[in-house]
Write a structure and sequence with these properties.
The chain is α+β, with helices and mostly antiparallel strands. It has 2 domains: 50 residues, no CATH class; 240 residues, Jelly Rolls. It contains 7 helices and 18 strands.
Length: 304
């Protein structure tokens, strides 16, 4: 009768009754669970009497992300949608959102969904073959798989302000693994070698940073000054690298391997449940990002 549909916490349509739309969504769930709804008219009247506050709402940027996932033929569960919305709201409250260029929350268990950038329609990822997609994240095969973020530091980044982060659920204590990598003429990189962390933000990599046990959780590399870059794990400062920034790489940044002037190598087999690229983050912002991401992972029952 009214022609309303209910999607992502918003009412869609014209000349419609919001209370009726909310009730319709509620009734569908009750009936699906084998319940009984006896009086539609009374229920709708009650909803109308308590006003528009009954209609849950999602952040506009979260809704835009949902739309991009749908347009790419991906899908998200209700739990994933709610977790994404909470993440966006918290990142904005913490003042982190504006520092982000790309956020890959790795939800939807498909290449179509996981390639989408939460921050904007720019820097949509491109997965090669060789990835496994699951509700817990994305896992490359360790021999040939990577995701091209289409982000070029020399085009979209700043010389003395930049960060990359990954939330990995895989511990690596031996061998080498590139989490994020772009090189030429300088590094924009984070990787492990025999458990030690190496990094470079618009500089050469190294010297060896801290050794983590385990190497899981959120690893963040951030530069906010020309002479200083920092490594954080799980929101805690672990190492300060005093290498001076020299130049920004002109190669696309890829997840799960190193793009070394157009040649890809040092492929990772670590599972990723979140990744981000953006401007440099302060120590406080690094801690806030971890707290937001860890809460996000906990909602999805995949925290480490």
């Amino acid at each position: 009768m009214y022609g309303y549909s209910y999607q992502y916490g918003r009412i869609i349509g014209k000349g419609s009754n919001p209370a009726a739309a909310v009730f319709a969504a509620y009734k569908t769930r009750v009936l699906a669970d084998g319940g009984v709804v006896e009086n539609d008219v009374c229920a709708i009247a009650f909803l109308e009497s308590i006003g528009a506050g009954i209609i849950p709402s999602f952040d506009a940027d979260a809704i835009s992300f949902f739309d991009r996932v749908t347009a790419a033929s991906g899908s998200l569960t209700t739990t994933e949608q709610n977790a994404i919305n909470t993440l966006v709201v918290q990142m904005k409250a913490d003042g982190i959102w504006t520092s982000m260029k790309a956020i890959y929350p790795m939800v939807g268990a498909s290449a179509a969904a996981c390639a989408q950038n939460l921050k904007s329609s720019s820097f949509t990822g491109t997965f090669t073959s060789g990835w496994t997609f699951a509700s817990t994240g994305v896992t490359p095969n360790g021999t040939s798989a990577y995701m091209n973020t289409n982000y070029i530091p020399s085009v979209s980044g700043l010389l003395n302000s930049g960060h990359i982060s990954v939330y990995s659920r895989t511990d690596l204590q031996s061998g080498s693994s590139i989490d994020f990598g772009s090189n030429a003429p300088a590094h924009f990189i984070s990787y492990f070698f025999s458990g030690a962390t190496y990094s470079g933000i618009n500089s050469n990599d190294g010297p060896p940073g801290p050794t983590f046990t385990p190497t899981t959780s959120l690893l963040l590399i951030s530069r906010i000054a020309s002479t200083t870059a920092k490594i954080f794990r799980a929101g805690t400062l672990a190492y300060t690298d005093n290498k001076t920034s020299t130049s920004r790489p002109n190669q696309k940044l890829i997840l799960g391997a190193l793009n070394n002037n157009g040649t890809n190598s040092l492929f990772s087999s670590r599972q990723y449940a979140f990744a981000s690229i953006g401007d440099g983050l302060t120590d406080t912002q690094a801690s806030d990002l971890y707290n937001s991401v860890q809460a996000f992972q906990t909602t999805l029952s995949r925290q480490v």
